[in-house]
Amino acid sequence: MRDLVLKLRGLLVGLLTVAACAGAAQAQQAPKAGAPSGAQEALLVSHDAQRAYTSTRDKLVQIRTLLRNTNTQSSVGSGFFVSRDGLIITNFHVASQLALEPDRYRGVYVPVDGKQADVELLAFDVPHDLALLRVKDAGADKPALAFRSKDVALRNGERLYSLGNPLDIGFAVTEGNYNGLVQRSFYPRIFFGGAINPGMSGGPVIDDRGLVIGINVSKRRDGELVSFLVPAEYAQALLARAGGASPITKKSYTEVTRQLKEHQDRITQWFINTPFKVQRHGGYSVPVPDDLLARCWGGARDASFKAFDLERTTCRLDSQVFAGDTTTGFIQVRYEAYDAPKFNALRFARMYSKSLRNEQIAAQGDSRMTAAECSERFIDRGGLTMRAVVCINAYRKFQGLYDVSVLVATLNRPTQGVQGRLDARGVSFDNGLALVAHYLNAFKWEGQP
Amino acid sequence: MSPLDTLPQADAVDASPAPTAAASLAKPLLGLLEELDRSGATVARLRVSQWPIIVGRALTADLVLDDAHVAPEHLRIDGGPSGALQVHVLDTVNGVGLGKAVYQRGAQFEWNGDEPLALGHTGLRMRLPGTPVAPEQPLPLSPWRTAGLTVVLLMALAAVSVIGAFFSATDTAKLEQIAVKPVLGLMLVLGGWVGGWSLLTKVFTGHPQFWRHLRVACGFGLLGVFASYVSDLLAFVFSWESLTRFDFVLMTVVFAAAALAHLLIALAPRRRRGLVIVVVSLALLALATSMGMNWLKNKRVSKQMYMSTLLPPSWRLAPTVSVEQFMRETGMLRQRLDERLKVQDDQDGEQGDEE
Fold it and tell me: What is the pLDDT of residue A449?
C-alpha cells in the first residue's frame, strides 16, 4: 500500500504549508459558489465536530523533535494525553529520531495554549507505529483522553473525529466515518473515511462520546479521504506495558531491530504457511500469494499487438513498517510471462535477456545498506530449468536483517518463458533463504515436454 | 663537396641542378646521405663524393639542418678504408643516438649507414654504393581489390547492425524503420570517427588515408561485435558468469587495438614499439581506473551484478543444480556480507552505542 506517513519533516514545512493554504482558500470560497461537493461537505465542521474539538483540545498536543544544537524543528506530529501524570501517545514515525538519535534530537510537546515543554520517550511499538512519551516535568495533573472499550464494537458508517495539527498550521478537527478494517493489511488498520494530513500523525480519533478509537497514521496519496488509523487497543497495550518505563536516552537500534526481527518472523511464517495461489501462463504454473495475503495487480499488452503476448502481475504484502530512515518488513512478488510463437528462438532470447537485464539491484552500498552480494545458477525444479539469481543486501544499523531479492527466468521453451522476482525486505538471513527456496520450489511446468 | 637536394616531401624526386650534377659526375659517388623527418620520410639528400662530411646547423656544414636541437657542427662522418663509416660526435649538448645508445660529445663509433642516426629531432641515413637496393614494389594489380574489401567490411558492419536491430525489435511491422535507423546511426558514428582520424593523419603525414581508416574502423567494429557475441555465448553455454561481468575488459582491449591501428596510420612513427607501449599503458590505466573506482565504491571490480544474457535453452551445456544445492551455495553470501559490514563500519568508524 502506498501510504503516506504523515510525519512532516522540517524541510518540507514551507512547501506543504503553501499547498495547505491554497487548499484552505478553496474551502473558504466554496460556500459562496453554491452547495459544497461531497469532499468539501466532509471538511465542513459540524456542530458535533465543534463539540468534539472543544472537549478534546486541552488533551491534544503537537509533538516536535528539535535539533539539540540549533533548537530548530526537524519533524512535527500530533499526540494526546492518556494519563494524568503526563503520558502521551503518538506515532513511532513522529518520535523515531528520539529513539534512534537521542544525542542529536530532543522532543517537546506544545499544547493548545502554545507553551512548549520537554518530553521523553518511554517506549515504542515499531510494527504498529506507536510511541509512548512522558512530559518531563509534569507539574499539575493533565487532562487525559479515555479509550473506547473493545467490547463496544465500531459500526460501519459511525461518525468519527480526527484531531491533530496539520502541516504545523494549528490544531484542527476533521470529520469522517468508520469503514471497517483495511483488507489484506498484515496488522489491523482502521479505514477512516476522512481527511488527515501531514502533521496529524499520532493525533487521536474519537467517537461521538469523545472516546479514542484509533490514532492517525497514514493516508493514500492516490485517493481522496482514504486514511488509516492504528486501532486504540494497541495504544492501550503499549500504555499498559510501558507506562512506568524509564526514559530512553541512548540509541535504540537494538530494540528496533528486535521488534523488526519479530515482525519479519511473523510475515515469513505467514507467507510460507499460507499455500500459494496457482497462476498459469501457458504451461507454467507460478506461485502467487493468496488473495488474503497480498494485493495483486495484473496487466497485459494490447491484444491487437500480434508480435508477442506479455502478461504482468505484481503482488505485495501490506506489512511494511517504518523504521527510522527506511520502510521495511514487506514481501513483493512480480511476474512477466512472455509468449512469442512468431519469434525465432534467438529473437526471443534477445527480448528475454533485455527484460532480465532491466531488473534493479542495489549494487552500491550506502549509510543504510551494504552493497549486494549475488549468487546465480541454472537450477532444475522438477524438470523445469530456470536461471536463478539471488542478491542480498545487509542492513548496517539493524544487524541481522537483510533485503533479499531473487530473480528467476524459466529456460525450457525457445519462445516462451516466465520471469519472476521476489523481494523480501528486512528479513533474517535464514528466513530470506527459506522464502527464496519456498518461492523457487513452487514453480512448475505443466505443459507438454 | 656534393650537391644538396632539398625535397618538399618524402617521396619528391631528386631535383639537383644540372651544373651540380655534372660536377658530381667528375668524382665518384661515395654515398647518399638522407635527412629524415620524425615520421622517417626523407626530406633532403646529400650526394657524398668525398670524406669527411660535417652535419649541423652552421653554414659551414655540408648538410645544413633546420633543427633547433642540433649543434652548429653536430657530427662528422668519415669513410674508413674498410668501407665502414666512422662517426665523430662534435660539440653538441644532445649527443647522437644510434639505436638505444646515445653518444656524447667527443665520442666516436662505427656506423653501417642503414640504421638511422638521431640528431635532435632529425634522422640521418647513409646509402653506400655497395648497399643492395630493395626490390621494386609492384603497383597494386587492381585498386578495386582494396575498394572491394572496404565495401565488404562496411556492408558486413551495416548488416550486423541491422540484424542486431531486427533481433532487438519487438514490433517488426515497420521493417524499414528497423533497417534505416541503425544504418543511419552507423554512418553517422563511422563518419565522425573515421573523419576525425583522417584529419589527424592529414596533419601528421599529409595524406588523410580516409579509406584505410574506414577499413580499420569497420574491421575492429566487427571484431568487437564478434567478441561480444562469443563472450555472451560462452557465458551462457557454460555458465561462465565472469565473462559477462568482465566484458568491459574485452571491449577495452578491442578499442585499444583499434586506436593503436588508427594511430599507427595517423602518426606513421619511426618507432612503433613506443606507440604500442603508450597505447597499452593507457588501456591498462583506463581498466585499472574503472576497476579501482568500482572497488572503492562497491568493493568489487565489476559493475555487473549478474549474468543477464539468456540464449535459446537448447544451447545450454552447463549443468543444472537442485534448488537445495543452490540455496546451500547462496548461504555462502552471509560471510561475504558480514565482511562488507565490517569493512564499511571500519571505514565509517561507527560506534555501537546502544541502550
Answer: 63
Q: How far is CA A275 from CA A97, A289, A291, A292, A439, in A?
A: 39, 8, 11, 11, 11
Low-confidence ranges of chain B (pLDDT < 70): 1-26, 140-143, 171-176, 270, 349-355
pLDDT at site B3: 43
Which residue type does B238 have? F
CA distance A190 to chain B (A): 33
Q: Is the complex ipTM more than 0.90? A: no
Facing residue for A379 by CB, picked from B170, B173, B322:
B322
- Is the confidence at residue A386, as pLDDT, over 70? yes
Above 60 in pLDDT, residue A421?
A: yes
Residue A50: CB atoms within 10 Å: 12
Distance, CA of A171 to CA of A169 (rounded, Å):
7
Close Cβ partners of A185 (under 8 Å, ≥ 6 residues apart): A1, A318, A319
Which cell numbers in the block locate residue A156? 460501519
Strands (E), A35-183: 60-67, 73-81, 87-90, 105-111, 117-125, 130-135, 159-164, 172-181
Does the pLDDT of residue A19 top 70, yes or no?
no
User: Can you tell me the distance from the alpha carbon of B207 to that of A166, in angstroms, rounded to the nearest whole number?
Assistant: 76
Q: pTM here?
A: 0.77
Average pLDDT, stretch A319-335? Answer: 91
Taking Cα atoms as reference points, which of A184, A175, A212 lies closest to residue A79?
A212
Residue numbers in B near A419 (CB within 8 A): none
Q: Which residue from A minimizes the CA distance to B173?
A: A307
Mean pLDDT along residues A220-233: 92
Contacts of residue A399 in chain B, CB cutoff 8 Å? 341
Closest partner residue to A370 among B297, B337, B354, by Cβ? B337
Report which of A365, A401, A402, A372 is spatially closest to residue A389, judged by C-alpha positions: A372
Residue in A closest to B325 by C-alpha: A379
pLDDT surpassing 90 at residue A414: yes
Contacts of A440 in chain B (CB under 8 A): 323, 326
Q: Identify the CA nearest to A208 among candidates A59, A81, A37, A46.
A: A46
Select from B160, B238, B306, B345 the residue whose CB has the most chain A CBs within 10 Å, as the one to mutate to test that interface: B306
Question: How many inter-chain contacts (A to B, CB under 8 Å) are there?
Answer: 151
Q: pLDDT band at A39, cuts 50/70/90?
A: very low
Radius of gyration for chain A, computed over Cα atoms and rounded to the nearest angstrom: 25
What count of other Cβ atoms lies within 10 Å of the Cβ of residue A292? 10
CA distance A306 to chain B (A): 9
pLDDT of residue B175: 67
Report the distance separating Cα A162 and Cα A172, nearest Å: 8
Which residue of chain A is at minimal alpha-carbon distance from B342?
Answer: A396
Residues of A in contact with B171 (CB under 8 A): 305, 307
| Residue A422, C-alpha cell as written in the block | 521476489
Which residue in chain B has the smallest CA separation from A438? B323
Of residues B168, B322, B350, nearest to A380 (C-beta)? B322
> In whole numbers, what is the pLDDT of chain A averaged over residues?
86
